[in-house]
Amino acid sequence: MRRRFNVTGSCSPDRHYMIRLDDRLKKIKENYVDYGSYFVINRGRQYGKTTTLRALKRYLSNEYLVASLDFQELSTGNFADESTFTRAFAKVFTRSFKTSGLSDSRALLEPVAEFTEKKDSSLNDLFDCLSCLCENSPRPIILMIDEVDSASNNQVFIEFLALLRKYYLNRDETPIFQSVVLAGVYDIKNLKLKLRPELEHQYNSPWNIAAKFNIDMSFSADRIASMLEEYEADYHTGMDIQRIAEEIYQYTSGYPVLVSSICKYIDEYLPDEDGFKDLSEAWTKEGIARAVKMLLKENTPLFDSMVKQLDVYKDMREMIEQILYQGRKVSFSPAVKSINLGLMFGFLKEENGHVAVANRIFEMYLMDLFIAEESIRSEMFLCGQIVRNQYIEEGKLNMKLILEKFVLHFKEIYGGSTEKFIEAHGRKFFLLYLKPIINGTGNYYIEAQTRDARRTDIIVDYLGEQFIIELKIWHGSEYNERGEKQLADYLDYYHKDKGYLLSFNFNKNKEAGVKEITIGNKTIVEAVV
């Protein structure tokens, strides 16, 4: 059977190119299940949770009986009250347990199956029955529940969790599951937050016996390379596997669905695109950049979810805007609600003690989103849009001319603005000006390593040519000279002879305009506004 890269639903090694899970499954079994831990696999959308659970069920089947449930099988009405929930739970539990690996499960399951017909039953009745099941089972039973946060009325499920906790604490006297594994985007303590974010008392702790799940589910560059090795064995493209894996990792930081999406675009779509006549030309750095561009134009479930959460949680959105636009350093603390939410959704991460956007693709998507919204009322965006054609000469981008025109337009529109206003928004204005000029042909992203309140580097890719642009706030001549030297050193890293520097200078005696300076063997085009 031919395999392909998968971005919808769970992955199977027989049908899809995927990261091998053997090491991950071994760690989960030895560090959690064998110890009898109850735990939550809490990760962002499309992070491989369902794939991991299905593989884990097979992996454990030699030693354990596994009942693997998916709460998406339950409707809204199934959570209306205890009696309705117990009947629905018993039905899906019975169906799942029949595939647990036990040759004759009918007699063992009969008491649980009877709940599907009961009209008046409680959670306590259900747990009495489950306890008997665990006591009489020939092997320890593992309960897995996927999509635990899909319940519409979480109160019944919270009471269900509370009873699980009670039985866990008393399991030396009352038999119950060996291990319970829950999976979802929302952490258990945030279940009510999912439905009613406006309430103050959003956090619950119905399951504080859960062990902390520390297994890394992202894809390292080496893991990406191992997946590409299997692909290369089938297609013989001649790609530089390790280099391609590293480049994909630079964009994704190993977020599973983003890795698979890039690979899928390269494999299935790029050979039909201009400039890529076959797979050997597609599996290149240029091919990855084109695949990223295609991905950013798609309305994927992951991006749709991101937009939805930003609309709901305004504080989180404002923090991300400040990080991206202003280079604000936000001290990392998961106790802060907006930070905790960003971590839970997979949008944010901790980096050197500060909050950072989780990966470059998220940064690019969020910047595109914010700029698209701003463009509706932005004079700078309109200026860039009106004159965009004059910046393209024989298919090449004239970045020096862009800076010259930006200085003129900025002075016309914002020349009388306050220093505080320009310091907060100046870099955003340049990105708004640049966006319509390169839109449809080029991409840009912010270099995370250099972003701070004083300095931000923009990397622009346009038809295979890269431009390094440093945006900074003026803090005196000495600081400016250090900035010029930093940019020259940075150009060495990118193997470039020319770079661009845009300074927002609030000195009344400043010399606005554009000039070229030489530092060593590097040319820097410096614009001052």
Adjacency order of strands in the biggest sheet? 11-12-13-14-16-15
Mass-distribution shape: elongated
Radius of gyration: 27 Å
Strand composition percent: 15-25%
> Quick one: CATH class of the largest domain?
Alpha Beta
How many domains would you count in the coordinates? Answer: 4
How does CATH name the architecture of the largest domain?
A: 3-Layer(aba) Sandwich
How many H/I helices?
Answer: 20
**DSSP helix fraction:** 40-55%
Separation of termini? 61 Å
Can you identify the CATH superfamily of the largest domain?
Answer: P-loop containing nucleotide triphosphate hydrolases
CATH topology of the largest domain: Rossmann fold
Poorly predicted sequence stretches spanning 5 or more consecutive residues: 195-204
> Average pLDDT, to the nearest integer?
87
Q: Assign the structural class, choosing from mainly alpha, mainly beta, alpha/beta, alpha+beta, or little secondary structure.
A: alpha/beta
- Major beta sheet summary: 6 strands, mixed
